[in-house]
Amino acid sequence: MSGLSDRLRFAREQAGLSQAQVAKMIDVHRPTISEIEAGRRRVTAEEMPEFARIYDVSISWLSGLDQNDGIGDDRVRLAARELAKLKPADLDRIVRLLTTMRKSKAPKR
User: Is the CB of residue 56 less than 8 Å from the CB of residue 13?
Assistant: First the structure.
């Protein structure tokens, strides 16, 4: 994930919100969110903490200042939202898949 606009779009989608819903939450017009996510409008200093609050991520992750480039807690929290929506059987399948992936990356002896 590269820029702020990409991170904002990703976080909004992971939060399950539409551009219209976010626009209403921060009291702007929907096209404003579209322009921000397209990288054609800058995010104001007042808007940045609002986006972080709404999407439940840190400002440092949104701005790309995170040392681990978003692979840390915020990214895990976004993935956890999606996992929480799954049926138990589907969640079990995902856990098995992750376990298999981890084992396949283990160094061979």
Answer: no
Q: Tell me the CA distances in angstroms from 80 to 48, 67, 73, one per residue in order.
A: 23, 21, 10
DSSP 87: -
Q: Are 36 and 5 in contact (CB under 8 A)?
A: yes
pLDDT for residue 8: 95
Find, among 9, 11, 16, the residue nearest to 40 by Cα. 9
Instruction: Identify the residue with better confidence: 17 or 76.
Output: 17
At 48-58, the pLDDT tens digits run 999 999 998 88
pLDDT at 65: 80
CA distances from 104 to 83, 92, 96, 109 (A): 22, 18, 12, 12
